[in-house]
Amino acid sequence: MSVISYTLEKCQKCMACIRVCPTEAISMVAQRIVINKEKCINCGLCLDACVHQGLLAKGSTLEDLSQYEKTIALVPPAVFGECRTAKEINQLMHTFKIMGFDEVVELSEYEGAVYNHIQQYHQENPGGYLISSFCPVINKLIEMKYPMLLSNMIPYELSAEIAAKRIRQQYPDHKVGIFLLCECISKLPIGKYPYGNMHTQIDHCVSLVDLFPRIAKIRDEHELVTEVCKEGLANISSELFVQDQLTSSTIVADSLKKCMLVLDLAEFGQLKGDHLLWLSNCINGCVGGNLLWGNPFEAAIHTRNHHQNGKKCSLTLDREEIIQQTVLFNRASVKSLKERLAEFSKINTQLEKLPGYDCGACGFPSCRVMAEEIVSNRKSLKDCRILASWEEFDE
User: CA 199 from chain center: how many Å?
Assistant: First the structure.
């Protein structure tokens, strides 16, 4: 589910968002930007390219707190990269508490348990390569463009989902609202509201950067003592993951361009070693999330310092808890190789009839996307403005 929305009055029709989209999910129809919800992977590149704020990404707000008898905030450890010291972490946790939540749950222990599962799974499944991705952007990218690699993915649940399930069990008789504070755009659609992901135990997802003005205003010297888990920090930081891993064969890719290059190599059998692929859309991992208010480079330094003083993970999870149960991507919808080849042939047939200029005059980023639209019966060759101009010239 795409969380990117279009703001007509601010759009300058520069088409920068169309050019930068890695999955060609954006087009222009009738002078309006149209986002293909099935193709969008919520990577945020279009938001970075749109300097006029014609595109926006929104989750829930704290106004939704009033709907519940008891409210819990799930705090990702990536946000601690914005804190220089342990005292600042404690102050930030207290700030979340006084924003109106009855309970604040810090997720580094859960991330640590997931980290230990990944390492154990890698040891128990030697040979070839495995993919570790906690990133919804990468998961969706693999589903769309690299479905043959789905079987190489390590199965595990998101740490926030594991925590939410345990919280539900603690309060069976309360109307509990669980709010995930999100460090990146891709996690905004995880919750039930407003995007309708009814498989999850998380009710709402809130952008951390949207909370920053309020955090800056009410943050004080009061503290909520928090012990951060070492393995949890390692799981969300590219540098620390490689440093802490049990083997020396991890390949780290921490930007979308790098991830696509690694996945291309993997799909075509160019990775020969026994590798663990650690993939993230954000620079340096979750600590560089695009909904944090700092920068990924100093955040990596701060996270490294917190890691040195962190505690060992003491949380034990059952295998049933940690193996993925929620639907991060729909494996049932993945087409077989035969189906993909048949579709590819149809698209190529239409592509050969198009001029191949990739001019964007039709509103689509490339002639291949136009060919896909023709195969899907949403467009025809008559909608190609170049072909139409040639016909007029011939007349």
Answer: 17
Question: Which helix (H) or strand (E) segment is 307 a member of?
Answer: helix 296-308
Q: Per the structure, how many domains does the chain have?
A: 3
Q: Residue 71 in contact with residue 164, Cβ under 8 Å?
A: no
User: What's the whole-model pTM score?
Assistant: 0.87
- What's the CA angle centered on 238, arms 272 and 305, to 5 degrees? 145
CA distance 242 to 235: 9
What is d(CA 47, CA 7) in angstroms, rounded to the nearest whole number? 12
Q: What is the pLDDT of residue 357?
A: 86
Residue 106 lies in a domain: yes
Three-class SS of residue 388? helix
- Amino acid in position 200: T
How confident is the model over 98-121, as a mean pLDDT?
94
34 and 166 co-located in one domain? no
Separation CA 95–CA 262 (nearest Å): 40
- For the chain, the first-to-last Cα distance in angstroms comes to 46
